[in-house]
From TrEMBL:
Cofactor: pyridoxal 5'-phosphate
Record-given protein name: Alpha-1,4 glucan phosphorylase
UniProt family annotation: Belongs to the glycogen phosphorylase family.
Organism ancestry: Bacteria, Pseudomonadati, Spirochaetota, Spirochaetia, Leptospirales
Catalytic activity: [(1->4)-alpha-D-glucosyl](n) + phosphate = [(1->4)-alpha-D-glucosyl](n-1) + alpha-D-glucose 1-phosphate
Organism the protein comes from: Leptospira bouyouniensis
Domain of life: Bacteria
Keywords, comma-separated and alphabetical: Carbohydrate metabolism, Glycosyltransferase, Pyridoxal phosphate, Transferase
PROSITE patterns membership: PHOSPHORYLASE (PS00102)
């Protein structure tokens, strides 16, 4: 047993020894009584489940202690509303944050198991689509680490983001039943349940005070039941929670139908009710899908606000004091219906006057915008909204009427600008603009990168800045170094800590101390060895996942992210085709060996994004089998990209592709993850790339392409992509290869839409940026051959990544928006030496 291991015992405090002894007993108990196994028939999966339940017990103890502290101190609390939380795997992160990784590893080795093998049995909790959900997960980690009383609220989807399968080069979607084998770290709060209504009508009555009151009478009700996921801070006793709501029918079945023999009808209502939390992002191309999506949004905020108000009322404060104790952050527009819901509660349930209610609401909510694209701002048809949430539509109309009347009286805006800021979009089909509701109903509105925050004030929210200049601010996104360095790249984390100590785990700016060693030849060699080991591991994963053998000595060039045309994976594969064509024309040409890695999912209904995935895979099939190319160029598409896969891909990467059209990416966080792991960035001046350039220096990043202002000017002047194609013979011949079915011999014409899009419209200016991108990639290839120079650039990228910690972001939110005082974090006392995988 571990407690008899002298080597380990010497490293533990008396408190840790007691914790370990208790943990061993809990582990043995769960193994035998929860999992039902004994020492003669154990497998890695059994160990994982028993360990998950054991750590859950440990977390619950700290969770209860944390909430007892909050109860005594009654600090202001932050509630983070998000329809996405892309948590990935949880157990390893918990072990690292709790400082238990080495201890548990020794404990399992004592019974013949390896912790790294055990942890592979955890399924990713893919309850998000991409950066939006992963950002929310990083923020929860940072709030707990900084001892902020911060809690997440979302939906417990039965099926997360789909599993992606590649068949004949095309994406196929399979259900992601992520919790099929149970979730050992989940805490089901069956005692916390709230009723949520839909449809129905409103009625008016005269209150005892002689006021006209409104009552909403729903036709349908659903129960929201709480499921908690403990969120431990790093090296602190704080454990907060992520509370996810699962939909349950208010009735198991209709007894009348059952008694008359209609068994399917008897359970139909139950099935319809529980569909609300069935799947992340239902297909909303149908009316039924749109209704379900709006249901999900209201379901989440309705249950969450009821829960928050019950907690607030425990202290018997007046509701006027709510903003002093509660801050609600809206992560994008999806939860903005919460503004109307809190107004409904105050007006209808609490019988407040309008002005009093509105004053409270607008001091509680703040709103984070995540897009500069007008078409991405969520809106709903008034007809659908009125059908599903009739009372809320009445309230929204009243909010809009009062707001527009006020700004007309002030004479701040022209009539055309008033139309822009109206919550209701007029026209043949009236729509409710949720972003406008969020701006009007929040006391702060922030973008997620300096460029993005500037752009939203100059474009989509320009008129609002004249009305509310004080509302707008910037909070550049960040990532948690615990997940994206300690957990994903323990070898690099250990190398760094040996040189500069481990304070960087909670103060990422301390990485700046690495600059003192940038010219140290021994340190450079150690750095290269860590990177090469990670590249070998990535090569193993690629072989396992795709059957493709790559050279780990090659330049590993990676673009992994959600597939969207503005992210320009298509630009990347066009340049790959150019490189391939050059090799074919001159088979003896000498080039820097390069492995181009793609990964990511396209929305099921996004035809063009899925077609780009098909093109990438078809190009890979041709290139990887061509003997003229040999090992000089390989193209890989790794299927089913997810958080746990990102943790393995990013450490093994040399080059990070962040090549969106300037002015389209709000921030990006994958750029920060690659930077923190020593990859160099090739990218446009878009999103957080602008700030990465400022931090790392122009000589340590590869910037190309049009700037945002140039993009706008080119579009205003009437952009014609064919002009660029005719000017570049190389580009012209690449497009001909696509049009003439070079990569689709068995499916002629399949890539015609890609050719037509690039030649005639090219909405994201790939043709305009191609030459600059190609030239910059040639520079990358040249620099990579200079081993010492590349290593220095890699070290400096890590050393100057301090700004991009989510701890810094959360500190700024706490100070500037939430007005939450921060407790001092407990400095790390131990160095967590994680094994090199």
């Amino acid at each position: 047993m571990v407690v008899n291991n002298p080597r380990l015992i010497n490293l533990l405090s008396e408190e840790q020894k007691a914790d370990l002894a208790s943990m061993e007993k809990q582990f043995a108990h769960h193994l035998e009584y929860t999992i039902g196994k004994n020492r003669y028939n154990l497998k890695n999966e059994d160990i994982y489940k028993a360990l998950g339940h054991t750590i859950r017990d440990f977390l619950i103890d700290r969770l209860n202690m944390t909430h007892e502290r909050y109860r005594e101190q009654n600090p202001k609390k932050v509630f983070y509303f998000s329809l996405e939380f892309l948590m990935g795997r949880t157990l390893m992160n918990a072990l690292i944050n709790l400082g238990l990784y080495d201890t548990i590893q020794e404990m399992l080795r004592g019974i013949g198991f390896e912790l790294t093998d055990v942890l592979e049995f955890e399924t990713d909790a893919g309850l998000g689509n991409g950066g939006l959900g992963r950002l929310a997960a990083c923020f929860l980690d940072s709030m707990a680490t900084l001892n902020v009383p911060g809690f997440g609220y979302g939906i417990r989807y039965d099926y997360g983001i789909f599993n992606q399968i590649i068949a004949n080069g095309s994406q196929l979607e399979m259900p992601d039943h992520w919790d099929a084998d149970g979730v050992p770290y989940e805490v089901v709060r069956s005692d916390i349940s709230f009723s949520v209504g839909f449809f129905g009508h409103t009625e008016t009555r005269v209150s005892g005070k002689g006021k006209i009151q409104h009552d909403w009478v729903p036709d349908e009700t659903v129960l929201a039941t709480a499921h908690d996921y403990p969120i431990p801070g790093f090296n602190t006793n704080t454990v907060n929670y992520l509370r996810l709501w699962a939909a349950k029918s208010s009735e198991e079945f209709n007894l009348d139908y059952f008694n008359h023999g209609d068994y399917m009808k008897a359970v139909q209502d139950k099935s319809i009710s529980e569909n609300i939390s069935k799947v992340l992002y239902p297909n909303d191309t149908t009316e039924q899908g749109k209704v379900l999506r709006l249901k999900q949004q209201y379901f989440m905020v309705c249950a969450s606000l009821q829960d928050i108000l019950i907690q607030f009322r425990e202290f018997k404060y007046n509701l006027k004091e709510l903003p002093d104790f509660i801050a609600i952050q809206l992560n994008d527009t999806h939860p903005s219906i919460g503004i109307a819901e809190l107004m409904r509660i105050f007006l209808d349930n609490e019988e407040m006057d309008w002005d009093e209610a509105w004053d409270i609401v607008t001091k509680v909510f703040s709103y984070t915008n995540h897009t500069v694209l007008p078409e991405a701002l969520e809106s709903w048809r008034v007809e659908l909204f009125e059908k599903l949430l009739p009372r809320h539509l009445e309230i929204i109309y009243e909010i809009n009427h009062r707001f527009l009347s006020d700004i007309r009286n002030k004479g701040v805006l022209s009539e055309s600008e008033i139309q822009q800021v109206s919550i209701i979009e007029e026209g043949n089909e009236k729509r409710v603009r949720m972003a406008n509701l969020a701006v009007i109903g929040s006391y702060r509105v922030n973008g997620v990168a300096a460029l993005h925050s500037d752009l939203i004030q100059k474009t989509i929210f320009q008129a609002f800045t004249k009305v509310f200049p004080e509302k707008f601010n910037n909070k550049t996104n960040g990532i948690t170094p615990r997940r994206w360095l300690l957990q994903s790249n323990p070898s690099l984390a250990n190398l760094i800590s040996k040189k500069i100590g481990n304070e960087f785990t909670t103060n990422l700016y301390k990485l700046k101390d690495l600059e003192a060693f940038v010219d140290d030849a021994d340190f450079q060699n150690d750095w290269r060895q860590v990177k090469f080991t990670a590249k070998n591991e990535l090569a193993r994963i690629i072989k396992s996942e795709t059957g493709i053998t790559i050279d780990p000595n090659s330049l590993i060039d990676v673009q992994v992210k959600r597939f969207h045309e503005y992210k320009r994976q298509l630009l990347n594969i066009l340049r790959v085709i150019a490189l391939y064509r050059r090799i074919k024309e001159n088979p003896n040409t000498v080039i820097t060996p390069r492995t181009v890695v793609f990964g990511g999912k396209a929305a099921p209904g996004y035809y063009m994004a899925k077609l780009i995935i098909k093109l990438i895979n078809n190009v890979a099939w041709v290139v990887n089998r061509d003997k003229d190319v040999a090992d000089r160029l390989k193209v890989v598409f790794i299927p089913n990209y997810r958080v746990s896969l990102a943790e393995k891909i990013i450490p093994g990467s040399n080059l990070s592709e962040q090549i969106s059209t300037a002015g389209t990416e709000a921030s990006g966080t994958s750029n920060m993850k690659f930077m923190l792991n020593g990859a160099l960035t090739i990218g446009t001046l878009d999103g957080a790339n602008v700030e990465i350039l400022e931090e790392v220096g122009a000589e340590n990043i590869y910037i190309f392409g049009l700037h945002t202002e140039e993009v706008f000017r080119m579009k205003e002047a009437g952009y014609n992509p064919s002009e660029f194609i005719h000017q570049n013979e190389d580009l012209h011949r690449i497009l001909l290869m696509i049009r003439e079915n070079f990569f689709s011999m068995g499916e002629p014409g399949i890539f015609g839409p890609i050719y037509d899009s690039l030649f005639y419209t090219d909405n994201y200016l790939l043709m305009a940026d191609f030459t600059s991108y190609d030239e910059t990639q040639n520079l990358v290839a040249h620099d990579f051959l200079n081993e010492t120079m590349w290593t220095k650039k890699s070290i400096l990228n890590v050393a100057r990544s301090g700004k991009f910690s989510s701890d810094r972001t959360i500190r700024e939110y706490a100070k500037d928006i939430w007005k939450v005082p921060l407790l001092d974090t407990i400095p790390p006392q131990t160095i967590y030496k994680l094994p090199q995988n």
